Batch of 4 targets.
Target 1
Amino acid sequence: VDHGTAFDIAGKGIANEDSLVEAIEFAVQMAAAKSNP
C-alpha cells in the first residue's frame, strides 16, 4: 500500500508506479470474477 505524496521525489522521474499498476490489475480481476460467477 502506498502512502504519502512523495514531494521529495516529485518531478525527478524516479517514482515507481508498479504497486499502482498491480492494484489496478487486481481490481480488474476482482470485477471480472464478480460479473462471471
Note: The mean pLDDT is 87.
Target 2
Amino acid sequence: MLKSKPCFILYKIMVPVFFFSCLLALSSPQQTYAQVQSEKGLPFIVNYSPKTFNGAAQVWSVQEDDRGIMYFGSQNCLLEYDGNKWAKINFNSTASGSVRAMAKYKDGTIYLGNVGDLGYLAKDSLGQTQFRSLLGLIPKENRNFFDIWTIYATDNSIYFQSREYIFRLRDPKTSELGKTDVKVWKPQSKFMFAFYLDGEYFVHQQGLGLYKMTNDSLVLISGSEYLGKERMQVMLPYIPGPNGEKQYLVGQFNSGLSI
C-alpha cells in the first residue's frame, strides 16, 4: 500500500494538468486568431459631434502640427484638439467665415486662410495658440478677396489661392530681398482650385482651362481648354505616357474623370 500511494498522488496531479493543457490548446488558436483579426480589422474610431467641440458640423480642412495637435477648419471658426480638450482659436481681424485650407511649412508653421484674411498660427506669451495675420504684407489694392480655397507649401514658398488672387509668400530665409516677399497673380476669369504635384503648381481658371506656373508666369496647358467648361475638383498623379511624359488624372464636378 505504501508503494502505491505516490502513484495515486501523481495521478491526482496529472489528470487536472492534462485537462488544463487540453483546454489551453483549444483556446490558444482562438485567442491568436482573434488577435490577428483585430489587427486586420477596422481601426478604432471615435466620433465627435458638434456639441462635443462646440462648433459647426461642416469641416473644410484638417492639419496636424509637429506636436501631434490637430486643427480643424470649421464653419466660422478654427478648432484645436490636443487629444483631451477642444479649444477655439479667435481671429484678430474682422474677417469671418470658413477656414477652407491649411498647410504646414517645413519649419512646422501652419498657414491658413479665412474670408479676406490669411496668416499663420503661433504661440503667445502664455502658450496659447493665436492667429497672426499677414494681410499687411499684401498690397492694399489686392486685399479685396473672399475665401482662401487652397494653400500649398513648397520648398521655399507658401501659395494662397482665392477666386480673386494667388498670393505667394516666399520664405524670408531664401528671399533675395532678405525679408518676407509677397507676389500676386490676377486671373483672367476666376481661379477655381489650385493643385501642387511633382513640384509644380497648377491652377484651374473658369472658362479657360488648366494653367501651370512657369518662371513666375501662369501658362495655359495646351489641350486643357475643355476643362474650363466646369469646375475642376481633383488632380492626381497618373502613370507616365507612351513617351515617358507626365500624365495626371483630373476630376470635374459633373463630367467625371479624364486623363
Note: Residues 1-13, 27-34 have pLDDT under 50 and may be disordered.
Target 3
Amino acid sequence: MVEQTVLGVFFFLLVGHALGDFALQTDWMVRHKNHREPPPENSCRHPRHIWIHLLTAHALVHGGAVALTTGMVGLGIAETLAHWLIDYGKSDGRYGFHVDQLLHLGCKAVWLMIWIVAG
C-alpha cells in the first residue's frame, strides 16, 4: 500500500494528470473535444455535438484520478468541473497550451491544500 503523505498525494495527482491529458487521450479525442472543430466526416455515425461527450468523458477521467488519489469524491467532482471549464476555455481560444497546463496544475495544488486541511 502506498503511504498517504502530502508528497505522495501530490505525486499521484500529477501522475493522474499526465495519464489523463497525455497517455489516455488520443489525437482524435483532442481534435473532436474542441467545440470549434467541425464534427467528424461521417456525421451519421458521430453526432454534431460529439465534443460535449468527449470533453465530459475526458474531464471525468481527471475527476476520477483526483477522487481515487485523495479518497474525496467531492474533490473529484470539483476536478471534473474545473477540467471541463479549463479545456473549454482553451478550445475557445482564450489561452494556449501552457496556460491550460498551469491552470490544471494550480487546481491540483488547491485539491492538495483541501486534502491537507480535511486531514
Note: The chain has a mean pLDDT of 93.
Target 4
Amino acid sequence: MLKPYIGICDFLSGSQALAMARLLSAESHPLSLRQLMVGVMISRKTLNGIESKWTAVWPPKEQLAGIFVQHHRVFNTLHYADDEGVDVLLNLMRATHFGGPNLNAVQLDMIWPDPDSLFIFGDARPDLKVILQINSRAFAAVNDDPIKLRQRLETYSGALDYVLLDKSMRRGLGLDAVGLLPYLRELHDRLPDLGLTVAGGLGPNTLDLIEPIVKEFPGVSIDAQGQLRSSGNALDPIDWGRAALYLKQAIKLFAGEVSII
C-alpha cells in the first residue's frame, strides 16, 4: 500500500530528520498514514566528485546514511538529479548504496530516463520505492498534454511507484493547481496504482495554492524545497522554523485524512 507523504527536501543531518518526524507524530492524528518524506539531494556530479554549484550545498555522499534515521513516520528518500541521463543504472546503484539501510525510496529528478534501466534497477532494489519527477522540460517533451504524459508514463509500467508533477525545478516557482488538475485527473483515472505528488513553490505562506487539488485528491502527496528558505533560494540553508511551520500547516490541511485500518 502506498502511503501519502508531506515532503521536505534538503535535510543535512539525522537530528533535523528526527525533529521533524517527532513534530509530525505530535501534531497529526495517531491513525494517520501520512508520512514525512525526508528528502536528501545528490546528483550525478556530486556522486562522482565532479564540481558543481551544488557541491558545497548538498551533503557528501559519505554522510547520506547518517541522515536517514529509522522512524515509523519517516519516508527516507534520496533525490537523484541528472538532466543528461548518463549511466543511469550504474549511478543509481551507487547512489542508493550510499543511502544506507534506512533508505526507503529514490526520486529521479531526471528528464524521461531510460525505462529499461529502471526495470533492471527495480529488480536489483525491490526494497525501494521509485518516484519520477516530471519537471517543466519533461512536460514540454510531451507537448504539455495530459494524455501524452500518461502514455509516456505507461512505458515505465511496473517501474514507478509515485509520479511528482513539479514545474518549479528547485526554483520555488508557484504551483498552478488549475493547470495541474487535468494531468492529475488523467493519471488518477488511467493509472490508479500510481501515487500522485505535486510540488512547486510550497511553503508556510503558500499552501493555499494546493487547496483545489487537495479538495479533489485528498490522498495527494506534497513536497517543498525552495520556499523553506526566507530567500526562496535552494542554494541557501533551510530555515527550520519555516520548515516546522510548513509541516504544521500541511498536517492541518490533511487533518481529515485518517486510516480506516
Note: The longest helix spans residues 14-27.
